[in-house]
Amino acid sequence: MTNRILAQACAGRARLRHWPLVIGHSLWLAALSCGAAGFSEAFTSDPLARCWRRHGDASLFHWNATNGTLDVTWDSSRPNSFFARPLGNVVTKSDDFALEFDLRLDEVIPGPNPAKPSTFQVALGLLNWRAATNTAFRRGTGHDSPHLVEFSYFPEADFIAATVSPAITSSNSQFATSFTYPLAMPVGDAFHIALRYTATNRTLVTTMTRNGLPFGPVESVTLGASFTDFRADTLSIHSYSDVGDLYGSIFARGVVDNVVVTLPPPPVLAVTIMRSNHVNLVEFTGRTNWLYQLEATADLVNWTTLPPAQTGIEGRMTFSETNAVASQRFHRIRAERP
Questions:
Q1: Which residues of the chain form CATH 2.60.120.200?
Q2: Rounded to 5°, angle at Cα 170 from 246 and 130
Q3: Among candidates 297, 306, 295, which has minimal Cα distance to 328?
Q4: What's the pTM value of the predicted model, to 2 decimals?
Q5: Strand 3-8 to strand 27-32: parallel, antiparallel, or no bridges (unpaired)?
Q6: End-to-end CA separation in angstroms for the chain
Q7: Closest CA relative to residue 184, chosen from 203, 205, 208
Q8: Which CATH class is domain 3-35+267-336?
Q9: What is the pLDDT of residues 34-65, one digit of tens each?
Q10: For domain 38-262, which CATH number applies: 3.30.930.10, 3.40.1480.10, 2.60.120.200, 3.30.470.20?
Q11: pLDDT digit string, tens, across residues 252-269
């Protein structure tokens, strides 16, 4: 038998990640090509030709081919809009992960809506795609925006000082955040922003530089004992609608560049597969906090779940299918965060 790699460009779903395997006359291992253990993006080529996608008002995001950057408009009068890339993984409060990026604001108008003259946020970070694209998702209410790990900046407006406010929200929209103020991000300055979450102390640390020099410091965010959990599977630059916010609005323009995402290892690694005496064996290295299931098909259309499911461990795991009589049998491992 022979082994070969089959790439799945920009694969991934909001809650599930699949690592398909084909077992028969030939053996295929299909790997997610977007994300997995992390990725970097310098926007030197059109991101939409690769793994990025837009949701909401697509006109708010423009790839600048001349400068090799992403030009972004944050306009809270528009619907929730995202320029996003799947992680190829799912991160929770039990994982270490990091995000860093360059940000320059070229125009900032807080409170452009006369009925909402206070401030609103410029934001980007990690989210859950299915939750964020749900019509019920509203960042402005403060209680309808689950599964976020993000950097937010609120420019000065009304009686509110300029504030840097990294935040994490849980699956039931609990907020863990910090407010560092007054801390203005002047128009035209080049900022580098790094967010690093450490699972052992459940803390998100944010560091910033301004034109290459230290800026801040920014207060860390620590998850309390009552904080449940989150499931983030997508990197996104967010332009949030201000629907649900009774006081604030924003219009801003700027540039995002040099994005780097660091993630834990993917949930399926080092797969070996074999067939012996009509038994198909699939062995791989798993991870804790994942639930695994073997699925099978004869036509790549109708998939059957093969019990039992297995709770993940940090080490080698094995699935087997007995009485597999089909001459060509296709299998895949379903890995899900419970």
A1: 38-262
A2: 85
A3: 297
A4: 0.85
A5: parallel
A6: 35
A7: 208
A8: mainly beta
A9: 556 799 999 999 999 989 999 999 999 999 99
A10: 2.60.120.200
A11: 999 999 999 999 988 888
